Hints:
6% strand
Amino acid sequence: xxxxRVRTGKKGRGEVYFDYTLLFIVLFLLGFGLxxxxxxxSYEANLDFGDSAYYLKKQMGATIFGLVxxxxxxxxxxxxxxxxxILGYLVSVVLIFxxxxxxxxxxxxxxxxxxMGVSLQPAEVAKLAMILFLASLVCHMGRSIRxxxxxxxxLAMPVPICLMIYFITNNLSSAIIIFGIAVLxxxxxxxxxxxxxxxxxxxxxVVALLxxxxxxxxxxxxxxxxxxxxxxLDPEAYARGKGFQTLQALYAIGSxxxxxxxxxxxxxxxxxxxxxxxxxxxxxxxxxLGLFGAAVIIVLFILLIWRFMIIANNxxxxxxxxxxxxxxxHIAIQVILNISVVTNTIPNTGISLPFISYGGSSVLFLLIExxxxxxxxxxxxxxxx
Length: 385
């Protein structure tokens, strides 16, 4: 008889599963991110701080710490965190409110807190807390989530956090990501296609109406985001303003060709492209490594999403599956939005590329989420027949 290995959710039986492929992809993205960060930021870091490795050192410190925390979280049974679901939600609310009196401003945005000398972005805490809270909520609601009332309750839970992030920290992109995570988790838990089709049509209609109003008003009296929409539609007309960063990113992408200019050979990073090490790092990847390098990174992110799907499909229970789906939604949405902004597919909004862009808070909480996914994976058991 041939040997078969099948999944079972019973603890203490069979072989423990560990997704080494997922771990390898994450480590590769982190290593690649550090290399690209040094390449992109060394010129400006030397000018601003007299140390070409300034950004690299800070990011490497956050990455090493994040990897240690990731391994710790991966070794803790994921159900341990369920008891902190409500507390995490409340803590994220408090941290966002603390931005008002104690927030630190950078690049014209007040989005960070200084805690014991460490810079923390509450929006990153909120993303992780929302994944944990919604996973717990979906499990506690059970079949009632398939009702109209249950559908509205789940969608309403992230709304207060999203509104606070938008109005207090002026961070539209994080608000969109958090709500997107909730929509994806709800879709997986209750795949009622009719409701989601109507929700999608409504969202498209609202966005189309806003764009129409902005275009017809010329952006007068509608804030700086209206200028970004106009610059998105015609970046050359706003080349001295909101369209400048987008144009420089497109120049970088176009000049890279198929194979790129070579690692470290970018021209746009030499003071031409603002925030090259943050939101626009993908454009420098395209310039230095070409379409080929960009395609490799996109394929790696697709493989990462595939590994998430494998773990979610084989999760021992619904709570574990929802945790993995939440992390998958977070990373997938953020990657799509970042690349869309860089290629001018959507209006410009500040959003980083996971594991690659500069940002200590971002990489730390992303690695904590990966730790949760690995913990769920370790809950999978195989037995032989």
